[in-house]
Amino acid sequence: MKAIVRSFRRGRKNYKPRHFIIEVASLKTLQKAKEFIGKQVSWKSPAGKEIKGTITSTHGNLGKLRVVFERGLPGQAINTEVEVK
Predict the structure, then answer these.
(1) Local confidence pLDDT in tens for the 85 residues of the chain
(2) Rounded to two decimals, what is the model's pTM?
(3) Which of 2.10.270.10, 2.40.10.190, 2.60.40.1080, 3.40.50.920 is the CATH number of 2-84?
(4) For residue 49, which of 45, 56, 57, 81 is within the disulfide window of CB 3.0 to 4.6 Å?
């Protein structure tokens, strides 16, 4: 299943470089998003490297998800696709 990286998880003055918020197109409710907690996510760079992460929790009430990656993604990863396994 495909998802899109929307932003870093951040506060007003700082951000967490390994934490990202992703959006799955078919998810629109909090209850459906909770079913995805614990699933694996992978992002592939244009050079072919793969960075893996895990969905840890939901974000907000509209079905967005928080992901913690094993390494931080580059800033160019925002608005690119990730694969939810």
Answers:
(1) 899 999 998 889 998 889 999 999 888 899 999 999 999 999 999 999 999 999 999 999 999 999 999 998 998 999 999 999 9
(2) 0.89
(3) 2.40.10.190
(4) 45
